[in-house]
Write a structure and sequence with these properties.
The structure is a homotetramer of 321-residue chains. The first copy, chain A, is of the alpha/beta class and 321 residues long. Chain A has 8 helices and 13 strands. The first copy, chain A, folds into 2 domains: 137 residues, 3-Layer(aba) Sandwich (Rossmann fold), CATH 3.40.50; 163 residues, Dihydrodipicolinate Reductase, domain 2. Chains C and D meet through strand 7, strand 8, strand 9, strand 10 and strand 13 of C and strand 7, strand 8, strand 9, strand 10 and strand 13 of D.
Chain lengths: 321, 321, 321, 321
Amino acid sequence: MANGHSIAPVGVIGANGYTGQELLRILGRHDGVEVVFATSESASGEETVSAGLRLVAPADARIEEAQLVFLCVPHGQAVAWAERLENTRVRVVDVSADHRPGSGREAGWVYGLPELSREAVRGARRVSNPGCYPTGVILALRPLLDAGVIASAGVVIVDAASGVTGAGRSAKRELLFAEVANDYRAYALGNVHRHLPEMRASLCGLSLVFTPHLLPVPRGILETIYVPLAPGVDAATVQRVWHERYGDEALVSVLEDRVPGLADVVGTDRVAMGVVANSAVAEPLATLVVALDNLGKGAAGQAVQNMNLMLGFAEHRGLRC
Amino acid sequence: MANGHSIAPVGVIGANGYTGQELLRILGRHDGVEVVFATSESASGEETVSAGLRLVAPADARIEEAQLVFLCVPHGQAVAWAERLENTRVRVVDVSADHRPGSGREAGWVYGLPELSREAVRGARRVSNPGCYPTGVILALRPLLDAGVIASAGVVIVDAASGVTGAGRSAKRELLFAEVANDYRAYALGNVHRHLPEMRASLCGLSLVFTPHLLPVPRGILETIYVPLAPGVDAATVQRVWHERYGDEALVSVLEDRVPGLADVVGTDRVAMGVVANSAVAEPLATLVVALDNLGKGAAGQAVQNMNLMLGFAEHRGLRC
Amino acid sequence: MANGHSIAPVGVIGANGYTGQELLRILGRHDGVEVVFATSESASGEETVSAGLRLVAPADARIEEAQLVFLCVPHGQAVAWAERLENTRVRVVDVSADHRPGSGREAGWVYGLPELSREAVRGARRVSNPGCYPTGVILALRPLLDAGVIASAGVVIVDAASGVTGAGRSAKRELLFAEVANDYRAYALGNVHRHLPEMRASLCGLSLVFTPHLLPVPRGILETIYVPLAPGVDAATVQRVWHERYGDEALVSVLEDRVPGLADVVGTDRVAMGVVANSAVAEPLATLVVALDNLGKGAAGQAVQNMNLMLGFAEHRGLRC
Amino acid sequence: MANGHSIAPVGVIGANGYTGQELLRILGRHDGVEVVFATSESASGEETVSAGLRLVAPADARIEEAQLVFLCVPHGQAVAWAERLENTRVRVVDVSADHRPGSGREAGWVYGLPELSREAVRGARRVSNPGCYPTGVILALRPLLDAGVIASAGVVIVDAASGVTGAGRSAKRELLFAEVANDYRAYALGNVHRHLPEMRASLCGLSLVFTPHLLPVPRGILETIYVPLAPGVDAATVQRVWHERYGDEALVSVLEDRVPGLADVVGTDRVAMGVVANSAVAEPLATLVVALDNLGKGAAGQAVQNMNLMLGFAEHRGLRC
């Protein structure tokens, strides 16, 4: 197992998407690992963000040379890779949705949200990396659910907005610059987004409505969450519960007296959260605002955090706190 | 009074802000009126968007020559102008917030939301033009409230996002390009936005939570509204109520099978709305999405619609339906 | 032939690209024509920007019902359409590059830059609509060339920047929002852009260097042109020559004391130009700045200007001067 | 003097502008220094980008505790600070324009462009940090001038574009988001930009025309430079000269077979350059494209590079190569 004195070889499958590129950038700054291969179906042969690293075809991945492999392939394509890796000694972080809670394929996989399941990740050989939207929603709501802060019969509404890299790097007309610039619109309406089963699996008992919107920015997620409060609690309770849970966490910022915007987190591997009470409303309702970089804590940053735990490095090594 | 055969002289006070400039553009295309003066404190002497029209200092406004004057001054400065106009025969459309419902100064003013109060506007001498956010919220919710579609004990949550022109044209650091680009953040949190009294005045009995966000786009408002439904109604009911109320309205588009985005309305004087039912939630909840151009139906377009009614023109003359 | 009293039927082939959509918007405001068909290979059956107009498959275009057809298909695909139209009485405006000067297929086609060849367009049955970049370059330089203002041995450098709609609406990775936003880069370097033969055909004798760049904006072209001046002339000469040539032109604005930016022209069908002398340089050199909307005067607007001339309408009817 | 084993205390005057904030970010990652004070006139008392660092009023700067002070004040305000520091042992990097070549106040100051004057910087107590535009222009052209590659009688044209942070963080109407978004325009036309004397001082003998444009992006500079070539040389010569001069430089990337765009350099402290020959032009002309982050190598990054040389650190410590 890796330690401070040796360099751990790692590989990246699907390294030319936005998440794969961000992952290579983070790994390039991490002095405990070396990327021994990075694959791309469409761009093999091209030099990539890490000077000196050339993308190879998937068939040329030297999997056995790696201690750990990241799967950054499109959803649906990680299953086959996971099977191929099953009988090797290589550890896996699956950044796709294929083995997340609610996928029906999560058996044998640890859900890698370290602030909530650090010890399970530490010993894991196979980790499923959380989705970008669920990372913010679960980190904000799980402690409140545990502390009984949310009104039991209420509905929690999550109004979310994401930058365009969240939709991937495939060439689609609706993602063209001239379509997205100056626009803002909701999508996956009707409470049917594919991240909902993942959120519900970690927030059982909660009635959630989740409405995502597409923002004309490259990266960043903002989630404005409306929470009906249980009797006797208020926004200060939320603040205190978060502080108790996350006071020592390097990658979770609990703000005081304000809420975060995208600019507070884009380019970092942190999630930030704040809470405000609403005046003049029929029932006690708190508004939570959660912000993270969909490519940082929402994908590649969290994948490296998981890798650090799995390989025995300091948890936040190489990350932007 | 103006009719199809004569040209009505009108004036604009505060013509160099974003609303004033948009108003001049619309009036420049309106063949029933002539702008006889347009004032600006900071830019008097400069030629403005309408070729041949030069901005003058407020003191040089030839008020008596106009049949109708638009007040586009910053909030707080319209009161003095209204007093000055009180004993003249000049009609007034106040585009500022100074005489809106909830301001405490609304006595003697008609609230100019023509789709809900057309006849009152038609005979009015003094019209208070609605705010941009309230225009969308009230047009979407008022018919539902009248029809008993909204659960009586429920809270309606309005999660709104606006382009930057909504914040005015004064030089403020937080509105600089390098601050706003790539960012997205909530403001006026805690249910304290100054448009709330205006909304509540038109939606009495409703418990509202309103959270605005600043979008990195120049113009456009999107309002995602979460409505708890009364027993026995569903999203189709919402759709039917809207159709009955707005089926003949040129400036209200009720969409079917989809919801609007900013790109559907920016550059027009219309408001567009759509509705979707949410699955898998503890209580029946519909999501409404309302979109309008904050400078069009949200300000200058609606001001011209009011002017058309006040001066006897066809209601939508010169407007972009 | 059309006149003020009858409505001319027209058709659009390739109506779902950015130029086609802009063309439908302009034609929708033009009260002398009716769009009797608009085709799209990929989006047939969809309703388009003009309410009530449904896109049809190319095979369903009722060509003989039109007095004039616009070809807005991708470059290379207009040749077959032109052949098909050859033995009909239907007039054609080819908005593609297929029959422009330098294409080798320009015989029998009038180059439709009305400010320089109005009379030829008036009688034409087949008009080739200029490219977006050449429209600005030729309108700025042709009068200077005629007046002997440009140093005979000099090289004219055109440094140009275009919004993303200039690259078309096909789904390509390099045009995705997340690739273009926050970036700015040159392309077609080495003086090899496909618009150069077209420019040279109208500016014979001139040695041109043309370098385009991709701007992170949806629309607009800015061309900064460096012109070595002949002995005895200066920037004021340029200004005077332009004024003499374009003083009466509704769609060409010659600015005084300033140069245009994109915001002066986007959303219009005009081109604007200004000139400045450079101090402290070894030889007399003027900087011209030319701005136009690539979809307006650079494509659809100019196509309608040509149509107006071909069908006997007032030249600027329906256009945004 | 600082070395690898001790921490050097440094201070920042004017830490709340875009350059000051970027400088604090870089210094926060530099493990050889500690920021002992950071001042701001307008924002004293506020916590800044470096967690735990609070901005103080200029009067509270504990100057004597610092080994080196950065002056990031607006142009014109550094003179007084420099005088105050004159008789202390504190080293100074002036990031403002006040002591640059051509300012008339450059006596006693070393011009800190390390790739061209490394040894002078190493021993210096007072360094004037280059402007953002000159950094790119001089690094690209100085080696070509030395090698005789540029035609002696020719004019070199620099067509440049900069992101909005280059204009500073003062609240000005023309820098508001709604003014800049979707626009692109030239400024300082007529070869009168205040950076020209600085460029000419390092490129004596060259006849330069410099035209900057404002890009709707937060950061980044692209300079497209048109260079008339001396007899017998071509683009390959340019490439070879650059390679010889910069082959070992960590912060200068000479690209092959392509030219850089903003996305290649934004967020780094590097400058990148490429060259292309132009075909079909009357005289041999090369197009150079130079890209850098105006806040990185164009300001704060280069300031830290100078600090590293002045304090005896490895030159690129803490920088993003």
